[in-house]
Amino acid sequence: MRSDLPTSMMIPLHEETRSYIYPIRKDTLDVRLRLFDAGPCTVRLIWFKRAHPTKTYALDLKTLDASKKIQSVWYHGTLVLKETARYLKYVFEIKEQDNTLYYSPEGLTEAFPQTCFQYLYTNQNDIIETPSWAQGAIGYHIFVDRFNRLDDRQDLIPWQSRPTRTNVFGGTLKGITEKLGYLKSLSVNMIILTPIFKATSNHKYDTTDYHAIDPTFGTTEDLNHLVSSAHALDIKIILDGVFNHVGYHHPWFQDVIRHGNKSMVADWFDLHGDKVNQQKRNYACVGDYKWMPKLNHSNPDVRKYLLDVGSSWINKSDIDGWRLDVADEIDLPFWHAFKNHVAAHKKDLYLVGESWKNGHDLLQGDVFDAVMNYRLRDLLINFFITNTIDANTFKSHVEDILFSMPRPMWHLSYNLLGSHDTKRIRTIAKDNPHGLKLAIGCLVAMIGIPVIFYGDELGLTGQNDPDCRKPMPWETSRNNWFSFYQDTLSKREIHPSLKHGSFVHAALSDQVYLIERTSDDDHVLCLFNLSKETYTLHLDEIIGITQIERAQEIHIHINAGTFQIIRIPEGMVSETGRP
Questions:
Q1: Residues in Cβ contact with 543 at an 8 Å cutoff, skipping those fewer than 6 apart
Q2: 506-549 pLDDT, tens per residue?
Q3: What is the mean pLDDT of residues 151-171?
Q4: Which of 53, 152, 218, 241 has its CA 20 to 30 A from that of 8?
Q5: Which helix (H) or strand (E) holds 47?
Q6: CA distances to 81, 95, 116, 438 from 106, in Å
Q7: Is 501-567 the same fold as 245-294?
């Protein structure tokens, strides 16, 4: 039995996989360690080149905790070399009080281990590349039929009618183009559209022709004009790709209905039996919804067709990315092929997958740039609005979300409070408007892309589908909610660090949360006070605030139920205090 086994109860976790060590440049690696049940400690990466085992180097690992009382389980650091990262061996040195331990494939030991973790080689294609324009963008998600129509034809229902699952209101692509100035006034620089291709429903998630714009929305020329007009305002356009399934009335599936398994495209679907039986639903469909038969992505013809759809709208209309519907119901090899195919046509596309779960497998840099961050949405609601979790729980789960993806993708995270598939956030927060304002402030301060669902900025209410898909209430387009959103979103224009700066945070109490963002020329503290009392922050409580004369006398007061985004003057930031 080993005599040097430690008595510490801490549980470290590191694996020699992309989840824990990965390249961000050929000469630069990000390294992570997860450390459970540990008290305050310091962690260093001890590393050496495989060919020179006696010459060791050390890198201090940091947490995302901005306060001086460490409350994190994740430690991370960036290892910068003078050459391509290759043939490295490493262990973790953990100092807890007066106790020094080493963590390696041997586990925790008091003596330096004989067996080390290894990193072998960085290839060019291992490096994670992301669209630089999307870092810290502000997104706006539009349900096309309900955003803006340009005429009041008699065959259309009144604009303020109650939405149903079937009624059509007449919003168009031209209507969106007309409102680009309005969106620019909200600091929006990315628009995400619900599906615009030919379909039978009002939502268009039941495609019948991937190569035609639905005539209720307009034409390819209208899309091209929208894209070019948006680009002139430095706004990008993201289309919704529904590649998991088609509509029941798609010509392919209709052919299978007519000819059964003798159809030329029968194996484009997953049919169980000789003929389609709608009552027994003997074919695969999304969410067991019979009107949306699922495509068979193992069929090479299906794959080729869908890949060509992905690139054709890039070539025809110069779109800037895809939001990919029910992404985790399609196999990963397809998405690898899709990313490589569309990237060959436009390198800086933004690809976001719809996923309601931990999208870790989709967020390793080789599939998508982001998934819809419903996990963060739940946390924002639970902390700021329903107050069912405390600040430290919120902070801990935010870190779990961030460390489920490589660090270059943190700035691309698709952060939302609502979509066409959720209750309106104003309805959820009906009894707590102050909490909603704090949640919106946190959405803007959080690392990633804040995405506003159309109408939320006007205080639009609604239960789930179809009520959350009400027409845009343009008659109230300059109300108090609009002013609040406009002012809060503009903070990203005022403070560059909110777009692309570093991120640390802290739970200052059960009901007070802090985010700190830092870039080369901008440093801000974002403070959120959910309590019923004024909170006073002493600046010398924060790591990295330089101990200048009288620093301990500098206080920030945050009133009860409010948030503040405050610039810290240059000269008060320590160069060594930030991770």
A1: 65, 66, 67, 68, 504, 577, 578
A2: 999 999 999 999 998 899 999 999 999 999 998 877 876 554 45
A3: 91
A4: 53
A5: strand 41-49
A6: 26, 18, 8, 46
A7: no
pLDDT grade for 477, boundaries at 50, 70 and 90:
confident
CATH topology of domain 245-294: Oligo-1,6-glucosidase; domain 2 (3.90.400)
Q: Which residue(s) pair with 451 in the sheet?
A: 139, 416
258-289 pLDDT, tens digit each: 999 999 999 999 999 999 999 999 999 998 89
What is the amino acid identity at position 96?
E
DSSP state of 424: -
- Residue whose tokens read 């961030």: 402
Residue 158, sorted as left (phi over 0), alpha (psi -120 to 50) or beta, turns out to be beta
| Entry pTM | 0.95
Mind giving me the DSSP string for 183-197?
Answer: HHHTT--EEEEPP-E
> Which sequence positions are flagged as catalytic?
325, 354
Whole-angstrom distance, CA of residue 101 vs CA of residue 91: 10
- Tell how strand 190-193 and strand 139-142 pair up: parallel
User: What is the distance between the alpha carbons of residues 74 and 396, in angstroms, rounded to a whole number?
Assistant: 9
Q: How far apart are CA 278 and CA 535, in angstroms?
A: 61
Element spanning 352, H or E? strand 350-353
The residue behind tokens 């039978």 is 200
C-alpha 526/C-alpha 503 separation (Å) is 11
Query: 501-567 adopts what CATH topology?
Result: Immunoglobulin-like (2.60.40)
Q: List all residues 6 or more positions away from 154 whose beta carbon is below 8 Å from its beta carbon.
A: none
Closest to 21 measured CA to CA, from 30, 12, 13: 30
- CA–CA separation, 543 and 70 (whole Å): 10
Q: Give me the architecture of the 138-244+298-494 domain, per CATH.
A: Alpha-Beta Barrel (3.20)
CATH 2.60.40.10 fits 11-126, yes or no: yes
